[in-house]
Structure formats: C-alpha cells, structure tokens
Amino acid sequence: MQFTKTLTNWYSVNKRDLPWRNTNNPYYIWLSEIILQQTQVKQGLPYYEAFIAQYPTVYELANANEEAVLKLWQGLGYYSRARNLHATAKHIAFNLEGVFPDNYKDLLLLKGVGDYTASAIASFCYNEVAAVVDGNVYRVLSRFYGIHTPINSTEGKKVFKALADDLIDTKNPADYNQAIMEFGAVQCKPSSPDCSVCPLIENCMAYRNNEIGILPIKIKNNKPKNKYFNYLVYVSDTDETILEQRRGKGIWQNLYQFPLLESKKSIEESEFMELFNPDETVAEISLFNEVDIIHKLSHQHLHTKFWIIKTTSLPESSMLISEIENYAVPILIKNFMDAFNFQNEI
Q: Active-site residue among 33, 128, 182, 240?
C-alpha cells in the first residue's frame, strides 16, 4: 500500500535519534512507553535517562522504595503511571523471574499497559504485527482519510483501530509503527503543520477539503471542576516545617504536601483566619501569593494560595526545612518551594 510505503520511507530519512530506538530490550522499551504516555518526547527523555541510570534493570526498579520512584518521577504528572510502573516491575521481577511477556495478549495483562503500550512493546521488541493507535496515529489517519468520527468515542476507537490494523506493514511492523507515530509528532503536528513538505499531501483529504485545523474531531469532556486549596507552610523557630503524605485514591496519592485546608471559594485573610483558627503558638501569618496560582489538571482546576505561618512550636511529626527536598511532591508544591526562599524566613 502506497500510504504505508510512503510513511516508512519518510521515517528512514527523518526519524529522530532516540535511545529507546537503539534497542529491543523490553525493559527499556516498556519504560520509555510508560514515560511517554501523555508526555512529549522532549519532556520525557530526561526522565527516561534518569530512570535508566538509577535503575538499569527491572530488578533494581522492583527493589526500589516507592517514595524513591515517585521522587524520580516528580514533575511528570499522572503519578498513577509511576505507581503502576513500580508494581509491574515487582510483578515481572518476582513473579515472572525478570522475563517480560513476549506477546501482545500477555503484555496487556500488565498493570498500566493498555492496547497502545502492549502493541508498541510487542512490535518493537518481538516484531509482532500489532498496530499502535495513539494521539499521533489518530491525527494522521483522520486527516489523510478525512474521518470525522470522534477519536474518543467508542465507535471512533473501533474505526481507527481497524484501519490501523489494515495499514500496518506485516513484514516490518516495528518500523511502520514507529513511522506513523513519528510522522504525527514531527510532520503532521496538531497545529500549523507545514503541509508544503508533506509527502502525503496529494491524497490527504483534510488538506484537499481545508480541514487540517478541524481534524481529528474529539468530543469535549465535561467542564473541569474548580477547587480551592489553601496550603499551610509552617516555619518554626527551630527551622522546621510540616509535610504530610496524601493518602487515599485521589490525585497525587502517596506524594507529600504542606497541610491543606480546602475552601469553597478563593478567600481573603479574614476568611482564612476563621477557617484556620490559629492557636497561641502562631506568631505571624502572611500570604505568599495575592493572586491564586491556578494548577490545571485534566478534570479539575486547583486555585491555590500558600499561607506562610511562623510559629514557635510544631508537633513531633515536623521535619527540618533542609530535608523537604528529599520528599516527592506534586509539581505545584515543587514550584512553590523553588520560588519561596525558606532561608530568608529562618
């Protein structure tokens, strides 16, 4: 098929030199694919290199402490990926004797591995004919074939998966899968692609019908909920503060944060004092940011204030301020820690 041949020819000339493309080691491929879920290559590459350096085999990763894994993951977001990564490493190391499943069907049984990731590992490592369908693939196929079925609908997922299965190069599935994903990432980009140098331009339905900016079509999700966070940043006379570990199944599970008070809206100092109700150990309260810091997650927007609380005494669970960098925290907290100069406060 000309579409398939054109893509693989383009890939042979234009592919980026990425470390996971120079190996068929399933540990390296699996690690890269988990990191690159909902993450661009330029952001994920340093994390991949850090994980390989820290945990060169699945055994080292399996034997690591979860907090250490989360700390290394810090800043990538979607932390369930890191927890699943660690759980799967332990399963492979301790239950499968360090041997990764060697086919799509069994790979799909691993925690954190879905259709796309299983297809990628199966084709890249074992040359199995398993077509990948990710955001890049959706974009390329929807534009070239002029498909208006929403990519995040049940019907759309079936349509695109079937088309991908029909198009894959059965003799060289690994290169074809890499090619179509790379084409979407580098050439057929989400916005303002340079169609003048596209090798598929002559038969591209989206270009012909002036629909490059329309396709692919995606059903809009519900409007994100707004939440209002007030973090209590304690600074004691003895150079200590408090970090608490988040529990439960909500966002940032097992990561650390400053004590949190949630409010129904963004609040001013008088309202905060009523909510906080300080005791006699509190010497001074000040607001770090007058304007809310808005941290956008997929289903919610966090409107955040950081309240600096100078105190004469903290409970035994407190820690030295100099130690807080050792804990895995959400990027929202890390950005605050980088901006707030604790040393000027102690």
A: 33
Environment class of 236 (CB within 10 Å of its CB; exposed 0-12, middle 13-18, buried 19+): buried
Q: Are residues 116 and 169 in the same domain?
A: yes
In sequence order, what DSSP letters do the residues of 130-182 get, joined into one string? -----HHHHHHHHHHHT--S-TTSHHHHHHHHHHHHHHS-SS-HHHHHHHHHH
Higher pLDDT, 316 or 112: 112
Contact indicator for 60, 19 with CB cutoff of 8 Å: no
Do 282 and 138 lie in a common domain? no
User: What local confidence, expressed as pLDDT, does residue 343 receive?
Assistant: 56
Q: Give the 3-state secondary structure of residue 218.
A: coil
Count how many domains the chain has. Answer: 2
Domain-embedded: residue 213: no
132 and 258 part of one domain: no
Q: Which two tokens stand for residue 100?
A: 């990764």
Which pLDDT tens digit goes with each residue over 43-99?
999 999 999 999 999 999 999 999 999 999 999 988 999 999 999 999 999 999 999
Q: What would the pLDDT profile of 226-276 be if each residue is shown by its tens digit?
A: 999 999 999 999 999 999 999 888 889 999 999 999 999 999 999 999 899
Number of Cβ atoms within 10 Å of the Cβ of 205? 14
Same domain, 198 and 232: no
Last residue of one domain, picked from the residues 208, 235, 260: 208
Closest CA to 331 of 296, 290, 287: 296
202 is a catalytic site residue: no
Structural domain range at position 57: 2-208
What is the tens place of the pLDDT at every residue in 155-188? 999 999 999 999 999 999 999 999 999 999 999 9
Residues 199 and 237 in one domain: no
**Quick check: is 215 in a domain?**
no
Closest to 133 measured CA to CA, from 156, 149, 110: 156
d(CA 328, CA 75): 9
Q: Please indicate, yes or no, whether residues 204 and 245 belong to a single structural domain of this protein.
A: no
Contacts of 46 (CB under 8 A, 6+ apart): none
